[in-house]
């Protein structure tokens, strides 16, 4: 029987050139949940900390025709326009 700890498994993946779990999680966080494309430097962060492409948020706001809500958690966003977001 081979003794293999979790740290050993992580070492094996990093040595084989396969992405680590942390890198995969980071890549997921850096994608817009609406279009699933990689976020760029113009991405907007909502107060709930969900992050989106500017173009996706604009389309979302046009679609709902009312107060902007987070497309993921539906938390109200208290700004007049997408451009006012950080």
Automatic annotation (TrEMBL):
This is SH3 domain containing ring finger 2. It comes from Nothobranchius kadleci (African annual killifish). The lineage of its organism: Eukaryota, Metazoa, Chordata, Craniata, Vertebrata. GO terms for molecular function: ubiquitin protein ligase activity; zinc ion binding. Keywords: Metal-binding, Zinc, Zinc-finger. Pfam families: zf-RING_2. The gene is SH3RF2. Residues 32-74 form the RING-type domain. It comes from the Eukaryota. InterPro entries: TRIM45/56/19-like, Znf_RING, Znf_RING/FYVE/PHD, Znf_RING_CS.
């Amino acid at each position: 029987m081979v003794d293999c700890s979790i740290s050993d498994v992580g070492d094996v993946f990093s040595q084989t050139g396969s992405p680590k779990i942390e890198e995969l999680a980071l890549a997921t966080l850096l994608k817009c949940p609406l279009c699933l494309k990689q976020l760029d430097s113009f991405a907007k962060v909502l107060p709930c900390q969900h992050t989106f492409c500017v173009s996706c948020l604009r389309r979302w706001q046009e679609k709902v025709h009312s107060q902007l809500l987070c497309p993921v958690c539906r938390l109200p966003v208290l700004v007049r326009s997408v451009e006012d977001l950080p």
